[in-house]
Amino acid sequence: MLTPLNGKTVIVTGSSKGIGKGIAKVFAKHGANVAVVSRKLKDTLSCVGEIQDNDGIAKGFEADVASYESMKILAEAVTETFGGIDILCSNAGIFPNSSIENMTAAEWDTVMNTNARGALFGIQACLPFLKKAETGRIILTSSITGPVTGYKGWSHYGASKAAQLGFMRSAALELAPYNITINAVMPGNIMTEGLEEMGEEYLKSMAATIPIKRIGTVEDIAYAALFLASKEASYITAQTIVIDGGQVVPESLEAMA
Fold this sequence. Notes:
Layout: E1 9-13, H1 18-29, E2 33-38, H2 45-53, E3 57-62, H3 68-82, E4 87-90, H4 105-130, E5 136-141, H5 155-175, E6 180-187, H6 193-196, H7 200-208, H8 218-229, E7 240-243
Parallel strand pairs: 1-2, 1-4, 2-3, 4-5, 5-6, 6-7
């Protein structure tokens, strides 16, 4: 059993829905004070309400991860509310579909600024407070897409997720002297609002490629993030956990026959 996070404060960016919402709810269940973050404050209300309905501690905050100034204001507001920052779950990300042939510079920049630069700005803004924490923790939500696999229309997304991991390894060296660890979860196909929009046929075909024969849940990712944030993971940094039901293992469907 992991040591509870009672008294610890976690910021979860992009937590109004999907994986981020799952992370926020699991951290609250295990005692953390949760800062639920979205670009629009009203979008945080559902997650905050669900946490409070289950006797958890949460408050909604508005911030744009692509803006350092916005993240700085967020970090200060969270510290004023909860007394500090112990954990940053840098989860916010976007994945618009765009072919290489038609992709514009603006589309590329928007994805990279949110997914990759957003991780940098979040860490920069939270770092003064993480330094004061007994054990600072940073967990990035990367993906198997980019670092391991590819998908048509997501070349900019894949590049951003691979960039997160390259950034993480050097960041770990700079953060270690402050007793701050940084690690990443790498989800495969997880049942979120975005995945549901891909359609029933996509979901069926994708499940067929996964050895465990199901699409993952947001809780599958959240509990891996919880472990990386725990006291028990204090000797782990610059590492990744692939959470994909074994999707990247078989060479073909025949390999699972």
